[in-house]
Amino acid sequence: MRVALVTVGDEILAGDTVNTNAAWLGRQLAERGVDVDRVTVVPDRVGEIARLVNEQRAEFDAVIVTGGVGPTHDDVTMDGVAAAFGRELEESEAALQWLAEEGGYVREELADGTAALPAGGEFIRNPNGVAPGCNIGNVYVLPGVPDEMKGMFEVIAEDFTGVDRFTATVEADEPESALIDRLIEVQEQFGVTVGSYPGETVRLKIQGEDEGAVADAKQWLAEQVEIPE
User: Fold this and answer.
1) By Cβ atoms counted within 10 A, which residue in 145, 187, 203, 219 is the most buried?
2) Percent of the chain with pLDDT over 70
3) Given a cut of 90, is residue 112 above it in pLDDT?
4) What is the pLDDT of residues 4-53, one digit of tens each?
5) 49-98 pLDDT, tens digit each
6) Segments in 85-210 forming alpha helices (H)
7) Which domain-ending residue is among 159, 178, 208?
């Protein structure tokens, strides 16, 4: 399963907020064997959101959009997603009912637009907040508030499944550039992939669908590189 992540927010593009949502979702999806092939940040503009969602829903198995969900003036994500599908926004009776019965909110006291979703979209409950999410086609819209986004993802997590993968790591006390030949060899010999992450040492992350092959690759690689003392 191939997934694209779209984060909406002028504050992220301006550097005022770090995009922790994409990092968290990437880890969650990777653990489920799902490939995150694209991460994009777009401004709070309906046309930009609509164009990107329309492109990516055709290219990927699923698109997860976070941020810009709610009734305030700059919460335009639902408008953009609706435009991508050629739909209008409409009040979701399912969302209003859930907010009243489970959330303890009074309908008449909710801000206008709180439960506005793209027509035909399926309401996704928000365990940690008010703004509802939405699933329309292969597009999932979640809030940008991290706690709310995480809670809502747990509601839909079972929709995202892939191939089981196994991982192992080796620390190398050598320059990353000096490891290239051995990294190529271990991948070819054991049918795994290896990512290298430099720091004080170089962390080598081995990944594959065969647990035995990953274990063998780790052992081989650990014998071929200089290990930190």
Assistant:
1) 145
2) 99
3) no
4) 999 999 999 999 999 999 999 999 999 999 999 999 999 999 999 999 99
5) 999 999 999 999 999 999 999 877 779 999 999 999 999 999 999 998 88
6) 93-101, 146-156, 180-190
7) 159
Could you tell me the CATH number of the domain that includes residue 60? 3.40.980.10
Residue 199 belongs to domain with CATH number: 3.30.310.50
Which residues, other chains included, contact 135 with Cβ-Cβ below 8 Å and sequence gap of 6+? 121, 122, 124, 141, 156, 159
Is the pLDDT at 188 greater than 80? The verdict is: yes
Is residue 214 within 8 A of residue 208, CB to CB? The reply is: yes
User: Which residues make beta-bridge pairs with 35?
Assistant: 2
Strands (E), the chain: 2-8, 35-42, 62-66, 89-91, 116-118, 122-124, 133-136, 139-142, 166-172, 193-198, 202-208
**Residue 10 sits in the same domain as residue 87:** yes
Q: How far is CA 140 from CA 58, 110, 131, 216, in A?
A: 14, 23, 14, 39
For residue 119, pLDDT beyond 80: yes
Residue 149 is predicted with a pLDDT of 97
Between CA 108 and CA 178 the distance in angstroms is 66
| Identity of the residue numbered 199 | G
Domain range spanning residue 124?
Answer: 2-159
Number of domains in the chain: 2
Burial degree of 81 (CB within 10 A; 0-12, 13-18, 19+): buried
